[in-house]
Amino acid sequence: QVQLVESGGGSVQAGGSLRLSCAASGYTYSRYCMGWFRQAPAKEREGVAVISTGDGRPSYANSVKGRFTISQDSARNTLYLQMNSLKPEDAGMFYCAAEPQGPWVTCGLSSTFTYWGQGTQVTVSS
Fold first, then answer.
1. Residue 102 reports pLDDT greater than 90
2. Which of these, 102, 101, 119, lies nearest to 32 by C-alpha position?
3. CA angle 87, 37, 99 (to 5 degrees)
4. Is the pLDDT of residue 30 over 90?
5. CA distance 44 to 17
6. Distance CA 28, CA 32 (A)
7. pLDDT band at 14 (very low <50, low <70, confident <90, very high)
8. Which residues contact residue 57 at a Cβ distance below 8 angstroms, ignoring those fewer than 6 apart?
């Protein structure tokens, strides 16, 4: 089974930056859809950004476009989420997720993900 471990969360002031990391292991497929999700207290889990390990093309939620960047380092088997210009509404528990992807399967914010990490907390103060 794929294992995902998030790190890099913390507390920052509005306008600050954080970089989240997701260390992955146990890959058995040649291509995966990977993503970051956020869940705020008393709210539904929302997709923030996704990327395909096949073509490296990212997709972002409208609320984070221009501020967040998802990327991957294949040599380290690590997924990143660079978060800039953070707002209080960005706060929540951030989860890393992965899903085996076939050659004709779309990797997007609405995709189904099988493997999940334990999450890392992000707090943004005004």
1. no
2. 101
3. 155
4. no
5. 24
6. 10
7. very high
8. 51, 107
What does the longest C-alpha to C-alpha distance in the chain come to? Answer: 44
Residue identified by tokens 């221009």 is 66
Give 58-100 pLDDT, tens digit per residue: 999 999 999 999 999 888 889 999 999 999 999 999 999 999 9
- Residue 76 has a pLDDT of 86
Dump the DSSP string for 8-40. --EEEETT--EEEEEEEE---SS-EEEEEEEE-
What is the token pair recorded at 80?
């990143």
Question: CA nearest 85: which of 102, 66, 100, 99?
Answer: 66
Structure tokens at 42: 């008393």
- What's residue 91's pLDDT? 97
Predicted local distance difference test score (pLDDT) of residue 13: 98
Question: 62 φ, ψ to 5°?
Answer: -55, -35
Q: What CA–CA distances, in Å, run from 56 to 4, 21, 34, 87?
A: 19, 17, 10, 27
Residue-wise burial string across 77-103, b where 16 or more C-beta atoms lie within 10 A, e elsewhere:
ebbbbebeebeeebbbbbbbbbbbbee
